[in-house]
Amino acid sequence: MLLSTRFIIIDDDEINNMICTVTLKKMSADVNIKTFLDPAAALAHIAADYSDPDEDHRAILFLDLSMPVMNGWGFLERFNDFDRAVKARVKIYILSSSDDRRDLDKAKADANVIDYLVKPLTRETIRQVTESQNP
């Protein structure tokens, strides 16, 4: 059973989004998953759904780094402009196929990134992520 039931997946690879979705749904039937191929659309979704101070929506976000138009780093730059309350509601994990140490170091240096995960997303990784968000 997942402790968190809201997830946002941002990756330009539809197959990875499907793998993440299937893996999450196998762990909980009532999980709420939003997938985005376009990081700008994900930013708009976050602004609309996580900015209301009367709502207490929280989500775990899996972010790919290598995407056209806006990559994961560009997403993080724009995410940083959100209000502190919004940033507190959305916990970001890099989910990348890159094992480049520079990417890992840059992600660890970003205050909005909780951790750096290497694809593919597994049930054990999801369990660890959700348990760390809900002690």
Fold and architecture overview:
With 135 residues, the protein is α/β, with parallel strands linked by helices. Helix 5 links the parallel strand 4 and strand 5 (113-118). The mean pLDDT is 91. The longest helix is centred in the first third of the chain and has 14 residues, at 14-27. It starts with 5 loop residues before the first strand and ends with a helix. A five-stranded parallel β-sheet has the order 2-1-3-4-5, sandwiched between helices. It is globular and about 40 Å long. It has one domain: 3-Layer(aba) Sandwich (Rossmann fold). The chain is built from six helices and five strands, in the order E-H-E-H-E-H-H-E-H-E-H.
